[in-house]
Amino acid sequence: MPSFYHETHTLFGHLRNPVLQWIFSIDHKRIGLMYMVLMFTLFFLAVGAALTMRAELFAPGAQFLEPQTYNELFTFHGVTMIFLFIVPGIPATLGNFLLPLMLGAHDVSFPRLNLISFWFYVLGVILGISSLVTGQGFADTGWTFYAPYSIRTDAHVLSTLSAAFILGLSSILTGLNFIVTIHRLRAPGMGFFKMPLFIWGLYATAWIQVLATPVVGITLLLVILERTLGIGIFDPTKGGDPVLFEHLFWIYSHPAVYLMILPGFGIVSEVLPAFTRRTIFGYHAIAISSASIAGIGYLVWGHHMYTSGMSDIARVIFSFLTFLVAVPTGVKIFDWVATMYKGSIVLATPMLWILGSIINFTVGGLTGLTLGAIGPDIHLHDTYYVVAHFHYTILGGVIFMFIGGLHYWYPKITGKLYDEGLARIAFGLAFVGFNMLWFPMFLAGFFGNPRRYFDYLPDFTVYHQISGVGALLIASGLLLIVYTFYRGLRSGRDAGPNPWNATTLEWHIPSPPPLENFPKIPYVDFEPYEYEAGEPLVQFDENFRRIR
């Protein structure tokens, strides 16, 4: 097994203990890897909870779970996936590892703040799962913590709310660090429109982290105060307004959807040029659309609340804005398809994951427009149609993009190559399994199967049984990915600095990258995706002098 990063900077100077070297490291690469290990551990715990729910739903009637246990399971699954994995996932892991590399910098602007952000994340994880460790059970509110139920339930909600608040603080600090890094530490000559598009995705995401996260933090804090002090804010029996909670929650949580998606879009825009061997089509349009999505995304929260009591004018406005935010997303998909048109496409594993994610995300986006329309949404609200739409967008879209990015940058992170055959099989299992799992839920929801129930009418049995088989397939694919990466780490061939013939700066330094990334800061007088006859137009020698 290769030894990662023999040297490191730590918070307390030189430390000899290798465990302490990692825990107190202020090297952005080590921090990104620590995030990655912890987040994917939590991811697989959440997948286990989902498989348990799918087993319960394989047939109508109670199988082996009590209703209260089922409520705790889907809350654990939702909170873990949303707050502990998807929202911080790509920025904290690949973002931390790659941001300085792609900008031509030695590290992020505030390395110590970066480590503190990770510690806040760890504290949030410990606090969030503490009720499970102590045997008190988990919250049963769902990941949305809707009031007044979250105020009145006897379940262990306080630790979960407090954990979400601390995780929000970690997210804000990370976003602030990224914004300053992008503004201050770009390599000489690298203007905003010479940045890689993954950086554009991280930049738009960071602004959402900084501006939107405080809203949900304050909202969750108000719920904590109401539970502990009895203040009437959201509980109607005390003069509070539960609809106010929904507004405050979704003012953050819909921008948070784009917080999850925009870094994934950036990954797509990195992988496509590398495996089509051509300059990406519409670079400026893709970059500006990321900023547009982040901006318009603040204005569409009300489409979650068509059935909550809202004026007709407000519903029409929110519906219009929902359709409007689809425009810059459509621009990206058009540009991605145009990039592939007449390209020299190489169907390596990262490209397969990206193609699969575009297909899945397109289905999720189009079904989202159905929910953005007022009439259909009233019929489909709180059915499995909504759950299927969300999972096509997040699991089939964002997480597929994330896994595609992991395959793409795996050689850079580890210096090793994985088994391409095993990786392709894993993708096939995951792609087929995902669509078997969630497409039947569109039909079940359309015919009226409500979500969040541990039981259902016998009419919906066939849909849930097909979904159950799909869940086993996608879980098998995910486990095979872990085995493929582990095997590559143990016995994979050396990757070299640039196995994909990619063009951005991180591919011009050794794999894994050295301590301070670059022997000297490069001067960027070229575009990020320049190919000539299918080969990178710009190359550097071992001393980072440009030779082409």
UniProtKB/TrEMBL annotation:
Residues 16-525 form the Cytochrome oxidase subunit I profile domain. Its main location: membrane. It is found in: Membrane. SUPFAM superfamilies: Cytochrome c oxidase subunit I-like (SSF81442). The chain crosses the membrane at residues 33-53, 73-98, 118-139, 159-185, 197-225, 249-268, 280-301, 313-334, 346-369, 389-410, 422-446, 466-486. Pfam families: COX1. The keyword Heme applies. It is a multi-pass membrane protein. Keywords: Electron transport, Heme, Iron, Membrane, Metal-binding, Respiratory chain, Transmembrane, Transmembrane helix, Transport. Belongs to the heme-copper respiratory oxidase family. This is Cbb3-type cytochrome c oxidase subunit I. The lineage of its organism: Bacteria, Pseudomonadati, Campylobacterota, Epsilonproteobacteria, Campylobacterales.
